[in-house]
Write a structure and sequence with these properties.
The protein is an alpha/beta fold and about 270 residues long. The chain folds into two domains: about 130 residues, Leucine Dehydrogenase, chain A, domain 1 (Rossmann fold), CATH 3.40.50; about 130 residues, Rossmann fold (3-Layer(aba) Sandwich), CATH 3.40.50.720. The protein has eleven helices and twelve strands. The chain has a six-stranded mixed beta sheet. Strands 9-8-7-10-11-12 form a six-stranded parallel beta sheet, with helices on both faces. α6 links the parallel β7 and β8. α2 packs across α10, α2 crosses α11 and α10 crosses α11. Pathway: Metabolic intermediate biosynthesis; chorismate biosynthesis; chorismate from D-erythrose 4-phosphate and phosphoenolpyruvate: step 4/7.
Length: about 270
Amino acid sequence: MDDLKKVYGLIGEKLSHSYSPIIHNEILKRINIDGEYVLFEVERGRLREKINELKYKVKGLNVTIPYKVEVVELLDEVSEEAKKIGAINTIDFKDNLMVGYNTDYYGFKAMLDVYNIDIKNKGAVVLGSGGASKAVIHSLLDNEIGEVVLVSRDKIRVEDRFKGIKCIDYSELKHLRNFDYIINCTPVGMYPNIDSSPVDKDILQNYSVAIDLIYNPTKTLFLKKAEEIGLKAVNGLYMLVAQAVKSEEIWNRVSVGDEVIREVFEVLHKEF
C-alpha cells in the first residue's frame, strides 16, 4: 500500500494535451519523493465511480476540465478558498477522507507576481465561466483588483453562480473601456484547436495585458494577436507549475520553495 500511495494523478475527460506528468515528476525528483504521476481519463457520468476506485490507490489527485465543479459534491471536506470558489482542482486523501483544495487560486497569484503584473485598483475582464475562471476571479478579488467583469456566452445562466460580479455576453464586450487586463479562462485555442481565438484584435486593442491560462500551445492565437498589436502577453505555464507545486505541498505535507517552481518552469519552457 505504501508503494501504491506514492502514485499521484490527474482526472479529466481528455488529457492527451497535458503536461502534468512531466511537471509533477520533475517536482517529485526535486523534493526527493519516490513517486509517479499518471493520467486518468474519465468519461462523463463515471466520475463518482472512478474517484471511489482511485481513493484506495493514489495519494492525491488533480482535477481538470470538465470536473472541477462537479467533483465538489463527492468530497468529505473542502478548503476555505475552494468553498469561496465553488470549484476544486486538487484532492487529498487524508485519514480516510477526501479533502478538496483549489491550487489554481494560488498558481494564478504566483504568475501575476513573477510577471510583475500589478492588479491593485485595476480592471480585469475574464473570458469564460468554468472552474478556472472562478479561481481567477477570487484570486483577483482577494488581491485588491478594482473591478472585474465576466464574459460568458450565456450571461443569464452564470449570473447565479457569480453573484456580485458583473456578467456580460460577447456581444457587449466591444462596449467595455478603461480595463487593463483581459484573461482567457476558456479552452478556446487549446491544442489541437490552435486556429481559434475567443476574441479578435478589435477587442484586444482596448487592453494593455493579455493573459491566457492555456499553456499548449505556448503561444495561442489569442496571445499572438495580442502581441501583434503591442500588448504584454502571458500564457498559463507558470501558473500550471505553481499550482502543481502547491498540490505537492498539500499531498506530502512539505513546504517547497519558489526556486523549484522556477526550475521546473525552465525545464518546460526549454522543452516546449
